[in-house]
Amino acid sequence: MELVLSKKLGRDVYGLGAPGFPIDQVRQADSDPLSPARYSCVYWIDHLLDCDRTRSATTDLQDGGSVEKFLRRSFLYWLEALSLCRSMPEGVVSIAKLESLLQAISDAPGLLELVYDARRFIMSHKLAIENSPLQTYASALLFSPAHSLVREWSACLQTLEGHSHSITSVAFSHDSTRLASTSYDSTVKIWDASNGACVQTLEGHSR
Question: Taking a C-beta distance cutoff of 8 angstroms, is the pair 179, 162 a contact?
Fold first, then answer.
């Protein structure tokens, strides 16, 4: 499973281009690049959990094993693919199952920390990625904490700072030149997506 995913996943596999390209406008091509990986993309963790852990799955779940290597190399690509497959909810459940398993076996602390951070990343940005697959690399990374392990997996181009509380949602403008963010600090901020500058703050927003 991991081998198939590693070969087939990548950044912007559908050539959408714009970070804010909405999922409801995505059309599956006749020669779908994800076709060979769709099943594996959704169910690889389930199959891993069903394996006999006294055999190969034991090494897969060790620190430095194939699961850690896959997550470090392809986690963001996997999230994009889950969004394109309309399967983000299944991904959320799967990563939670993997975390529970690692907590039970308790002999892979490095991998457990990685999966814990991955689950937090998914839970924080599920809606944005589900609605626009390429926000995996845009707003989701931009608004992740600086200490997040996820930020080490992909080059962080810029960090947008200004809200005094947690971000609740983000959205790109139609032409992807502006990014709007809402926060529990009761403000909406409009950002220049090209340079990260805050161009406007709207106060009085009620969640």
Answer: no
Distance CA 191, CA 159 (A): 11
Query: Phi/psi at 178 (nearest 5 deg)?
Result: -130, 150
Two tokens at 56?
Answer: 């190969």
Cβ density class 40-54: b for 16+ within 10 Å, e for less = bbbebbeebeeeeee
Query: Whole-angstrom Cα distance, residue 191 to residue 23?
Result: 22
Judged by DSSP in three states, 154 sits in coil
Answer positive or negative: Cα dihedral of 126, 132, 136, 137.
negative
pLDDT in tens, 33-82: 888 888 999 999 988 888 755 555 567 888 888 899 899 889 999 999 99
* Strand-strand pairing, 167-172 and 198-203: unpaired
DSSP strand pairing (198-203 vs 178-183): unpaired
* pLDDT tens digit sequence for 101-114: 898 887 889 999 99
Sheet holding 178-183, edge to edge: 167-172, 178-183, 187-192, 198-203
Token pair belonging to 161: 């700072």
Kind and range of the H or E run holding 81? helix 66-84
